[in-house]
Write a structure and sequence with these properties.
Layout: E1 3-8, H1 17-33, E2 38-41, H2 47-60, E3 67-74, H3 83-95, E4 98-103, H4 110-120, E5 124-128, H5 134-144, E6 148-151
Parallel strand pairs: 1-2, 1-5, 2-3, 3-4, 5-6
Helix pairs in contact: 1-2, 2-3, 4-5
């Protein structure tokens, strides 16, 4: 059965977040209707957390066969986050169907390894891509792997 990964920027403009939540829900619903049940995310601040929370909310409101798989770079990913973000992260960890860590502690290359793991589990990639950086690299990786990439930034007016 096909899976879907998420990739997106860590900073989402506050004006965009409400529309992005709606688009995420609609896109996950569309993939669900097509048979996708497994969703993979990297646990980062910003788009990843928004996507993870959307999957969790949909599971709680009737899509109980959805599965959220967290593929995390390292066990101490949240070490420098503020208390509120760490609390959100801990809730998501507790609600995930599976949690996989690439390494115990941060090291060079671990984010790219995490992104490769996300893409390798997926046939689809839902992205929020507006500029260059790690998200653009992951989208490029997904396209090369044959994933259908859906960039929600293209749908925000």
């Amino acid at each position: 059965m096909p899976g879907c990964c998420f990739t997106g920027h860590r900073v989402i403009p506050w004006q965009v977040a409400p529309r992005l939540r709606i688009l995420l829900t609609e896109q996950i619903e569309e993939l669900y209707a097509a048979g996708v049940r497994d969703f993979y995310a990297g646990g980062a601040l910003g788009f990843d957390m928004l996507a993870e929370e959307t999957v969790c909310r949909m599971k709680e409101t009737g899509r109980c066969d959805l599965r959220l798989h967290l593929v995390l770079p390292c066990t101490d990913q949240d070490a420098r986050w503020n208390a509120a973000d760490r609390a959100r992260y801990r809730v998501l960890l507790s609600k995930a169907d599976s949690v996989r860590y690439i390494t115990q502690s941060y090291c060079p290359g671990v984010m790219a390894a995490r992104n490769r793991a996300l893409v390798s589990s997926s046939s689809f990639c839902i992205a929020y891509l507006t500029h260059t950086g790690g998200t653009a690299q992951t989208v490029s990786m997904a396209k090369k792997a044959g994933c259908r990439v859906i960039n929600l930034a293209d749908r925000i007016v």
